[in-house]
Amino acid sequence: LWLLRDVSAGPGAVEKAELLATMERDLGSLLQPTQLDRLQQLVARARGWPGITAEPSATRLKLTALQIDKITAINTKTLGEIQRVALSNDAPAARNAAMQKLRTQEGTAIQKLLSSDQRQALRQLVGAAYDLSNVQPLYYEAPDLEQVDAWLNSQPLEMSRLRGRVVA
Predict the structure, then answer these.
(1) How many CB atoms lie within 10 A of CB 23?
(2) How far apart (Å, rounded) are the C-alpha atoms in residues 73 and 67?
């Protein structure tokens, strides 16, 4: 599926659709309905503003063809401005702030195109914001090096003495 992520036509698109359907079916059997709903909300959030013109979001929001065209134009304009900022010689913090401002402006412009019912449907589509600061990183300790017949350029190494170091 990862290899086919950007494919939109031809045999690869068919294979991608089949893989997605299988994955959705398998997730549906593993997750509780509330978990599956939340996963779909997180996916909608991850797609960002360009994602609302794609199916099934556009249907769920009841977007008109005119709204889709206007949203696509806003998305395209924002992407061009973000690319311009990304290539600028500004400091990284300034670039990030400028890109965030552009994304905020994009969202404001798009929401102005939506009716109050569509904005409500959008809130349900994306759910509550997800606070990544509460996610604990996963750490794994490297196993001890065992059954080594010969060491090159060093004495035998023990993982306990290498903790906290980058080792290649």
Answers:
(1) 11
(2) 10
Q: Which residue matches tokens 């979001």?
A: 57
- DSSP state at residue 141: P
Query: Is residue 45 classed exposed, middle or buried when 0-12, 13-18 and 19+ CB atoms within 10 A define those classes?
Result: middle
Locus of tokens 């992520």 = 5
Asked if 37 and 50 count as a contact pair (C-beta separation under 8 A), the reply is no
CA dist 44 and 60 (Å) reads 12
Contact 117, 58 (CB under 8 A): no
pTM attached to this predicted model: 0.68
Q: In this structure, how many other beta carbons lie within 10 angstroms of the beta carbon of residue 68?
A: 16
Q: Which two tokens stand for residue 91?
A: 């400091």
Amino acid letter, residue 100 = Q
Q: Among 120, 100, 102, which residue's Cα sits nearest to residue 111?
A: 120
pLDDT in 10s for each residue of the chain, 168 residues: 677 677 778 888 888 888 888 988 998 899 999 999 998 898 899 889 999 999 889 999 999 999 999 999 999 999 999 999 999 999 999 999 999 999 999 999 999 999 999 999 999 999 998 887 787 777 777 788 788 888 888 888 888 888 878 877
